[in-house]
Amino acid sequence: MTAPVIGVRTVAQLEDNLGALEVALGADHMARLNAVSDVPRVFPMDVLKSPAEGMMFGNVKVRPRG
User: Does 4 fall in a domain?
Assistant: First the structure.
């Protein structure tokens, strides 16, 4: 998850930054982004993936918007 911090000096800059909230990516774009940003799971995450994710995220599953 990414949470950018915006810094603005004018109302126009704020409106431009807030306009990014209206951007919606289609399933094909998301699939391409997921494919190119995938990183190989290495030790210990390859072994601890399921238990570690459950502990880190409280077994919360995030559903895509849309």
Answer: no
Is 47 part of a structural domain of the chain?
A: yes
CA distances to 32, 62, 66 from 22, in Å? 20, 19, 12
Would 34 be classed as within a structural domain?
yes
Structural domain count of the chain:
1
- pTM of the prediction? 0.42
pLDDT digit of tens for each residue in the chain (66 aa)?
Answer: 667 788 899 999 999 989 988 889 999 999 999 889 887 777 776 776 666 667 776 777 767 776
Helices and strands (H and E) in the chain: how many: 3, 0
Q: Give the residue among 26, 38, 31 at the shortest CA–CA distance from 65.
A: 26
Half-sphere exposure for 18 (CA within 13 Å, toward CB): 7
